[in-house]
Each structure stands twice: as structure tokens, then as C-alpha cells.
Design goal:
3-stranded antiparallel β-sheet, 20 helices, globular, binds 1-deoxymannojirimycin, alpha-1,2-Mannosidase, hydrolase
């Protein structure tokens, strides 16, 4: 026994060493398996990557009728400088997740353009199985995969139950629509989702949507639509799809629709009606708006798309319409320097003196900043208007609560209501985006303000049972970032808080923004996912919430896109090259210093 014992011990340790070598070998295999480099030896990868990472965009195009030199739709992965440099020094993990996920996808799903759905489903199952090996995958990739699957579920459900309808009822498993689309079947979710599909590399789904639009999307219908909603979702979505894919059809559809919207501007002042009938061209305003007014956030959120339309078509009408609105506003008195939400298109007078950075006001301010960015910072008039508006807003609307939370209230006839809407949470991202170029060296101040708003909005999520934010929350009578009224406790899959996390991430690379985005993604998946898609919930403070049974089109256009970008590399849709419209549709920067838009003088922009 004594003689044999050392031999036995030796065999055991040999076995142990062997086991160690074996497990090291397996680990290496998995490492190679998942992170195989992108080189020419792996042709299968290359083909997939080429297709997904460097999507087809026509060679630098000039706007056919724009006089002067070029602008080009940049590549989605074009290298950015400028702002991104603030984050220089971040780890490779943080920076290259989108490349890695696409490598993973192409490995498991090599012929993702295949129409063989059985194969596709099997391949898709494999992506699910990746989670079994999550220890080998960085958390950013796991998060990216998670969002990718959410998009697949939202799209596939709409494809199956709501195809061609504007939106989806995920519980009833049928189509849904609201009056903003005029109760006609315009496939709003298809148009809104296109660029998200494209950015995520879901090319088969993109082609499916493209085919539907080509064959079915017809704007000669007797439908009274919202000019604003149709502009940001349809014109914005079609233009983004055009710039990303290079498919002329998208541009043609955008122009056809824009022609149908133009009669809305036939008012005594040129301030457009809120709604227009696509067939008759008759316009009118919402019955609920103060004194028959048009809404600031509606007529003030046309600039980006309309300037692009003029650029692409050479038709000066679009550009002139939005510049006319700007000039008219510039001439008007502003109470306390603030823009009221209501303006009567017949008289040219303000309605009620309510000012908001949330609903009814929000994207007007956003488009002032983005007009400047989109013009390659040549539209200094827009920048100055934005800066002045921000100064007045900071003075009158932004406060700190007793608990130290910075919030943006609502100004109502000289009184500040200490309530902030979910919609106003987008402003954190806007402040960060506008920090560079702000007057008096206030870049740091605005970045800090963006961070404070992001923090407050995160608190509004964190203080609920579902970890999803309410529609509006108060800072009054001891309340801090919580909703009071029952009809303010709902969450309808809105993007604004995640949008702000994404901008803050891009400008600071503080990992907390990804963490917060991840929390939101998990909460949405846990509480809003149903077998037929994703639904809004009626009470974020209830552990057993009821559903509203609507999968909003902006969930696919914005919420999931911003989440995906949050976990992706900064060189996916760099902010130097792309400006996102208010529905998260990316439009390229136009180098207007070198272009004279028809209907404009260079000095005007
Ligand atoms: C979107 O349609 C746009 O972001 C718009 O500007 C405001 N609200 C919704 C999403 O909440």
C-alpha cells in the first residue's frame, strides 16, 4: 500500500493536470469560436460583415439640384472625430461591441439574407443559446444581443399580426391605429422601423418592409393625418432609409408624401395646420388646442426633413416654408423670453402662455439645435435662437428640488408647475448635444445639466415598482420624481430617457449610462413583453400592471434603436456625420458652406 500510494498520487495529479490542460484548451476553443478575427481567411465572415458593417450606400451623391459641392450620406460606421474624442481611451470592449456582435451573428446566421425561414429560425435559436456561454461574452455584447432579440420579437409580432396596419395590438394580436394616422393603413410601424432594422443588420426584414412600401404605400387616400407625426415618422423614416440604403424608391415616396403635406401651409400666416387631409388638402387644428392654435412642437418640428427635401429635389418650396415659420417667430414678442406652446395660424397671435420642454414644446427646441448641427454648424441663426431659448428656459423652468434633483417644470401663465413629463427627459441628451458651441464657454455647464436631467429621469424610473418611468412626475409637497395622478402613472414604451442615456454615454463614456439603459431594457422585457409583441403598461407603481395593448411605432424607431446604439461602438452612426430627427431617424449632415440650396441665399443659413 505504502509503495503503491505515491504512484496513485502521481496518477491523480497527472489526471488533474490533464484536466487543466483540457479545460484550458476548451476555453481557448470557445475564445476562438466567439472572437474569431475578421480576416480574409474567414471568407464566410467577410461576406457577412461586408454586407452588414459596410452597407451599400451609393458613392457620394450630390443633391441633384443643390448648387455647389457635395454632401454624401456617410457610412453608418464612418469614423468620427470631434465629440467622440472626449471618450478616447475607453477599452476595446466598450468600443467594438457592434463589430463583435455582427461577427457572432454572421457566424451563427451566415446566410441571414436567406428566405428559408426554417433555417433562419434554427439560426436564431442559436443566438439564444449564446446566452449559455455568457461568461465568455462581454456584458455589452450580451446587452446588444438582448436588444437585438427584443427588436426581432417586436418586428416578427407586427409582421405576423399587424402587417400593413399602422401599429400592433400585441394582446389582441391584430392591427391598431390612432387618429394621427387618419385611420388609414399606412404601415407606420414598417416605415418607422426600417432604419433600426438596417442598423441592426436585419436585412431580410428590411427588404420585406421595403417591398411592402414599394407595392402598398399610397398617399392618395382620403385620410386626415397629423402633419407633424407624418413628417417625423414617415418623411423622416423614408429619408433615413434612402440615405442608408441608397434605394431611390424611399426618396420618391418621401417626396410624394411631402407634396401632400404642403397644402397644410395654406393659412393666413403660413403657420401650418396641425392636420391635413391627404386627398383634399383641407387642413384644420386640433379641437383641444387653445383658441384654435397650432402647436409649437408641431409646426416647429419640420425643419430637418424639409431642408433635406429641398436638397434632394431642388424644389425650394420646402425650404421656404420652414424658413418662413422661423422668420415669423423671430419677429414675435416672447413673454419672459419664452415661446408659448400655442400660436394661432389665422391671427399670428400666441394662445395661452404655457411653455414646456415636454409635450407641445419639446422638439421645437430640439430642431433649432439640430438645424445648426445638420448645416455643419453654418446655420448660426438657428444656434443663436436655441441659445437664447435655453437661457430663458433655464431661468424660468429649471429648478432643483428639496432632495437635490434638477427638474424642468412647466410654465403656465407666469406660474411654474413643479411637474416634469417623461417627454421632457429627452432634454438631458439635447443639453449634452448642444454643449459644444454654447456661448460664454458654458459647454461644461450644459454637459453637467444634461447629466443632472439624466439622473433625475433615472430616479423617476428607479422609484417605481416596475423600474419603468411614469408619464409625468412631481416635485411638490414632499414628492420627488413620482407620479401622483392615476392617469400619469403609465409607461407607453417611450424612448426619451434612454435617448438621453445614449447621448450622455457618447459624450462622457460614464458606464452608469449603459448600466441604466440595461436596467430599462430588462424592465421593458420583463413587464412589457407579451407573446404578441410589446405593450405599454398602465401603472408603473403596481406589481401587477394591466396592459394598454399597443405596440407604439416609436418603440421600434426610437426606444430599441437608442438601446442598441447605447451598447454599440461609437463609430456606429457617428454624431459628426448623422443628426437624428425627433423620431430617431438619422439624416446626414449637409455641408451647407459649400451648397446653395434652391430658394436660399448662403447668408441666410
Ligand atoms: C416620438 O414620436 C417623438 O420622439 C416625438 O418627438 C415625441 N414623442 C414620441 C415618443 O415618445
Amino acid at each position: 500500500m505504502l509503495v503503491n500510494s505515491p504512484q496513485a498520487t502521481l496518477r491523480l495529479s497527472e489526471k488533474f493536470i490533464l484536466l487543466l490542460i483540457l479545460s484550458a484548451f476548451i476555453t481557448l476553443c470557445f475564445g476562438a469560436f466567439f472572437f474569431l478575427p475578421d480576416n480574409s481567411k474567414h471568407k464566410r465572415f467577410d461576406l457577412g460583415l461586408e454586407d452588414v458593417l459596410i452597407p451599400h450606400i451609393d458613392a457620394p451623391k450630390e443633391g441633384k439640384h443643390a448648387r455647389g459641392t457635395q454632401t454624401a450620406a456617410p457610412r453608418p460606421h464612418a469614423q468620427g472625430g470631434g465629440r467622440q474624442r472626449r471618450g478616447a481611451g475607453r477599452s476595446r470592449r466598450q468600443g467594438e461591441t457592434s463589430v463583435e456582435i455582427i461577427q457572432l451573428r454572421c457566424f451563427f446566421w451566415p446566410n441571414s439574407l436567406s428566405t428559408n425561414s426554417d433555417f433562419k429560425n434554427k439560426s436564431y435559436e442559436l443566438i439564444h443559446r449564446l446566452f449559455l456561454f455568457r461568461d465568455f461574452i462581454s456584458s455589452e455584447i450580451q446587452w446588444l444581443l438582448f436588444v437585438f432579440q427584443m427588436m426581432k420579437h417586436a418586428w416578427d409580432s407586427y409582421r405576423q399580426y399587424g402587417w400593413g396596419h399602422n401599429e400592433l395590438k400585441p394582446l389582441a394580436k391584430k392591427g391598431h391605429s390612432t387618429n394621427i394616422f387618419g385611420n388609414s393603413q399606412l404601415g407606420a410601424s414598417i416605415v418607422d422601423a426600417l432604419d433600426t432594422l438596417y442598423i441592426m443588420g436585419l436585412h431580410e426584414e428590411f427588404k420585406d418592409g421595403q417591398e411592402w412600401i414599394d407595392q402598398n404605400l399610397d398617399f392618395s387616400v382620403n385620410a386626415e393625418v397629423s402633419v407633424f407625426e407624418v413628417n417625423i415618422r414617415f418623411i423622416g423614416g423614408l429619408l433615413a432609409a434612402y440615405y442608408l440604403s441608397g434605394q431611390e424608391m424611399f426618396k420618391q415616396k418621401a417626396v410624394q408624401l411631402a407634396e401632400k403635406l404642403l397644402p397644410a401651409f395654406n393659412t393666413p400666416t403660413g403657420i401650418p395646420w396641425a392636420m391635413v387631409n391627404l386627398k383634399s388638402g383641407v387642413g384644420r387644428n386640433w379641437g383641444w388646442a387653445s383658441a384654435g392654435s397650432s402647436i409649437l412642437a408641431e409646426f416647429g418640428t419640420l425643419h430637418m426633413e424639409f431642408v433635406h427635401l429641398t436638397y434632394l429635389t431642388g424644389n425650394p418650396a420646402y425650404y421656404q416654408k420652414v424658413m418662413h415659420i422661423r422668420k415669423l417667430l423671430a419677429k414675435m414678442d416672447r413673454p419672459n423670453g419664452l415661446y408659448p406652446n400655442y400660436l394661432n395660424p389665422r391671427t399670428g397671435r400666441w394662445g395661452q402662455h404655457h411653455t414646456s420642454v415636454g409635450g407641445l414644446g419639446d422638439s421645437f427646441y430640439e430642431y433649432l439645435l439640430k438645424a445648426w448641427l445638420m448645416s455643419d454648424k453654418t446655420d448660426t441663426e438657428a444656434r443663436k435662437t436655441y441659445d437664447d431659448a435655453m437661457e430663458a428656459i433655464e431661468r424660468h423652468l429649471i429648478r432643483k428640488s428639496n432632495g437635490g434633483l434638477t427638474f424642468i417644470g412647466e410654465w403656465k401663465n407666469g406660474h411654474l408647475e413643479r411637474k416634469m413629463g417623461h417627454l421632457a427627459c429627452f432634454a438631458g441628451g439635447m443639453f449634452a448635444l448642444g454643449a459644444d458651441g454654447s456661448p460664454d464657454d458654458k459647454a461644461g455647464h450644459y454637459l453637467q445639466l444634461g447629466a443632472e436631467i439624466a439622473h433625475t429621469c433615472h430616479e423617476s424610473y428607479d422609484r417605481t415598482v416596475l423600474k419603468l418611468g411614469p408619464e409625468a412626475f412631481k416635485f411638490d409637497s414632499g414628492l420627488e420624481a413620482v407620479a401622483v395622478r392615476q392617469n400619469e402613472k403609465y409607461y407607453i414604451l417611450r424612448p426619451e430617457v434612454i435617448e438621453t442615456y445614449w447621448y450622455m454615454w457618447r459624450f462622457t463614456h460614464d458606464p452608469k449610462y449603459r448600466q441604466w439603459g440595461w436596467e430599462a431594457a430588462q424592465a421593458i422585457d420583463k413587464y412589457c413583453r407579451v407573446s404578441g409583441g410589446f405593450s405599454g403598461v398602465k401603472d408603473v407603481y403596481s406589481s401587477n400592471p394591466t396592459y394598454d395593448d399597443v405596440q407604439q411605432s416609436f418603440f421600434l424607431a426610437e426606444t430599441l434603436k437608442y438601446l442598441y446604439l447605447l451598447f454599440s461602438s461609437d463609430d456606429l452612426m457617428p454624431l459628426e456625420s448623422w443628426v437624428f430627427n425627433t423620431e430617431a431617424h438619422p439624416l446626414p449632415v449637409l455641408h451647407l458652406a459649400n451648397i446653395t440650396l434652391p430658394g436660399s441665399e448662403p447668408a441666410q443659413l
